[in-house]
Design goal:
By secondary structure, this protein is an alpha+beta fold. The protein has a single domain, classed as Glutaredoxin (3-Layer(aba) Sandwich), CATH 3.40.30.10. About 30% of the residues lie in helices and about 20% in strands. It is built from 7 helices and 10 strands. The protein has a 5-stranded mixed beta sheet with strand order 5-4-3-6-7. A 3-stranded antiparallel beta sheet has the order 8-10-9, with no helix packed on it. A two-stranded antiparallel ribbon has the order 1-2. Bound molecules: benzoic acid (BEZ).
Length: about 220
């Protein structure tokens, strides 16, 4: 495991296997590769007991069932200890009445943060920025989002991205700007001139040969 964690520091690569790791969490040790068969949203926050992070944890907890419905497991992370995570999540329960139902990694040694480029020196060299990594059931990294320390994330956008990724994963299509479930999807561009000509006869909603949509 040391070897895996030491091997590839820096930004992970979309379309490649998400770097595997073993980590201490609020539910004990977990290994990313044990989540095969499920989608994973791995996300980092700067620090426990801070207001924006607290609002985000509440936001993720409120959407937890929506993620579960989509076969998505949430995993949080910061460079705080398990004891700090426990104290903070207990405080969120006490002060806001919200249970935090997902594991939170205590990345004190910054091993996972290093593998995923979660430390962005321009923001801070001691805390992780607000990252989100969406990983498919085969362990492939499908999308990543980086936010600075000062700006909380939209859980609705993360859920929308999960819907979009699951749709493109299952149907081999693409999704246009602001796509949401039920909207038409984009038919992948034709690879040959002949295919461009033929697709106009296939009953898609085409504005032109390169811009065709269809309902799923
Ligand atoms: C916050 O979560 O409130 C926060 C954390 C780090 C920097 C700025 C804000």
């Amino acid at each position: 495991m040391e070897e895996i964690q030491e091997a590839k520091r820096g930004l992970p690569v979309l379309g490649r296997e998400a770097p595997d790791f073993e980590a201490e969490t609020t539910v004990g040790k977990i290994r990313l590769s044990d989540y095969r068969g499920k989608w994973v949203v791995l996300f980092s926050h700067p620090a426990d007991f801070t207001p924006v992070c607290t609002s985000e944890f509440i936001g993720f907890a409120e959407k937890y069932q929506e993620f579960k419905k989509r076969n998505v497991e949430l995993i949080g992370l910061s460079i705080d200890s398990v004891s700090s995570h426990i104290a903070w999540t207990r405080n969120i329960k006490e002060k806001f009445g919200v249970d935090i139902p997902f594991p939170v990694i205590a990345d004190l040694g910054m091993q996972v943060a290093g593998l995923y480029g979660m430390i962005q020196e321009g923001e801070s060299s001691t805390v992780t920025v607000r990252t989100v990594f969406l990983i498919d059931p085969e362990g492939i990294l499908k999308a990543m989002i980086y936010y600075p320390l000062t700006n909380g994330r939209s859980m609705n956008e993360i859920l929308r991205l999960v819907d979009s990724l699951q749709t493109t994963y299952e149907h081999k299509v693409a999704t246009p700007a602001n796509w949401k479930p039920g909207d038409a999807v984009v038919v992948p561009p034709p690879a040959t001139a002949k295919a461009a000509e033929e697709r106009l006869k296939e009953g898609y909603e085409c504005v032109d040969w390169y811009f065709c949509k269809k309902k799923l």
